[in-house]
């Protein structure tokens, strides 16, 4: 893997922050428009599937508001009490979103069960279908913008919000099917689709929780990115290897720590210059990263204990892989 194939942020941190703020504003705006449209359609049709998607949009608005507050806090610069910044506010917002989504799923399951026992005929299904088509078009536009922001910032909060709205596409399509089928046949289609929607919402909530926990527990960068970091560092002709590579993400910030192995006879100033050059190459790929490099004489490396994690690493050790990378 080369620098050109890296997962990296193509924009400066200031531009990333602007895009993230715009994404939160767009999300809230779309949710409010959909709430109004779906509220009218539900009042006229009395469809439990329409109620399901109305609840989902209402929770989307609350979650998006939570996102707005979390993103504003996450983008606050590091201060005396938080030297590593406030990026984990995004992960906390993700957990809050998951709680909202899980609560809506439980409510939908209860309401669908009630409708199975006491079926209610659906009225004005044509208006409901029209509202769902409108929702799909508006949601697709928002998802397109969110995809651009996620690609630029790798934001967990925006990613969780995008997962919300990707779920909405399936929800809206299911509601259209439920309304049409219920209008020509069994009214049980309406609560049946509501149950399916609720189960998918639970799955979506778990995906958000998993990603948030990865950030809060300082999960390592993906193996592909770790290998890329090693390759970039070892591409310098005076670097003899690296070890003890550690990495994590917190919001839009990336943290990279590594030990750089250099020839014993190098002077302190030379070693420092090499370290700066390696850091500059890494910053070309990870412009918003905080990089800490420790310099080790290559002769002492074998005597230093290097932790190995067979379950998380490739079958070969880091040292063996570096021998293949080095000329």
Secondary-structure blueprint of this entry?
Blueprint (H helix, E strand, L loop, with lengths): L12 H33 L2 H27 L14 H29 L7 H29 L2 H29 L4 H28 L6 H12 L6 E10 L2 E10 L5 H18 L3 E9 L20 H8 L2
Parallel strand pairs: 2-3
Antiparallel strand pairs: 1-2
Question: What structural keywords apply?
Answer:
327 residues, elongated, Alpha-Beta Plaits, mainly alpha, Alpha-lytic protease prodomain-like, three-stranded mixed beta sheet, 2 domains, disordered C terminus
Summarize the structure.
This protein is mainly alpha-helical and 327 residues long.
How would you describe this structure to a colleague?
This protein has helices at 13-45, 48-74, 89-117, 125-153, 156-184, 189-216, 223-234, 268-285, 318-325; strands at residues 241-250, 253-262, 289-297. It folds into 2 domains: 3-216, Cation efflux protein transmembrane domain (Alpha-lytic protease prodomain-like, Up-down Bundle), CATH 1.20.1510; 223-325, Cation efflux protein, cytoplasmic domain (Alpha-Beta Plaits). The model is unreliable at 1-11 and 311-327 (pLDDT under 50). The protein has a 3-stranded mixed sheet with strand order 1-2-3. The chain has 9 helices and 3 strands; from the N terminus they run H-H-H-H-H-H-H-E-E-H-E-H. It is elongated. Helices cover 65% and strands 9% of the residues. The chain is mainly alpha-helical.
């Amino acid at each position: 893997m080369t620098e050109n194939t890296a997962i990296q942020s193509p924009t400066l941190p200031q531009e990333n922050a602007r895009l993230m703020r715009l994404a939160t504003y767009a999300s809230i705006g779309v949710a409010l428009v959909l709430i109004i449209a779906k509220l009218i359609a539900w009042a006229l049709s009395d469809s439990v599937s329409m109620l399901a998607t109305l609840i989902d949009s209402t929770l989307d608005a609350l979650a998006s508001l939570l996102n707005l507050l979390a993103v504003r806090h996450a983008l606050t610069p590091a201060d005396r009490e938080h030297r590593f910044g406030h990026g984990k506010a995004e992960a906390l917002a993700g957990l809050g979103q998951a709680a909202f989504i899980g609560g809506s799923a439980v409510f939908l399951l209860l309401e669908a069960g009630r409708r199975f026992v006491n079926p209610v005929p659906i009225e004005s299904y044509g208006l409901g279908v029209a509202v769902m088509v409108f929702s799909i078009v508006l949601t697709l536009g928002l998802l397109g913008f969110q995809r651009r922001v996620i690609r630029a910032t790798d934001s967990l909060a925006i990613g969780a919000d995008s997962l919300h709205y990707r779920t909405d596409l399936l929800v809206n399509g299911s509601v259209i099917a439920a309304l049409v089928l219920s209008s020509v046949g069994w009214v049980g289609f309406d609560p049946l689709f509501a149950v399916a929607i609720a189960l998918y919402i639970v799955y979506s909530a778990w995906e958000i929780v998993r990603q948030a926990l990865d950030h809060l527990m300082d999960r390592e960068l993906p193996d592909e990115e770790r290998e890329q970091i090693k390759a970039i560092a070892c591409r310098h002709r005076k670097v003899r290897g690296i070890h003890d590579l550690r990495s994590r993400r917190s919001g839009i910030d990336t943290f990279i720590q590594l030990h750089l192995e250099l020839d014993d006879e190098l002077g302190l100033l030379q070693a420092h210059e090499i370290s700066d050059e390696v850091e500059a190459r890494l910053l070309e790929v990870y412009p918003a990263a905080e990089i800490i490099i420790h310099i080790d004489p290559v002769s002492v490396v074998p005597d230093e204990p290097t932790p190995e994690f067979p379950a998380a690493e490739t079958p070969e050790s880091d040292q063996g892989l570096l021998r293949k990378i080095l000329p």
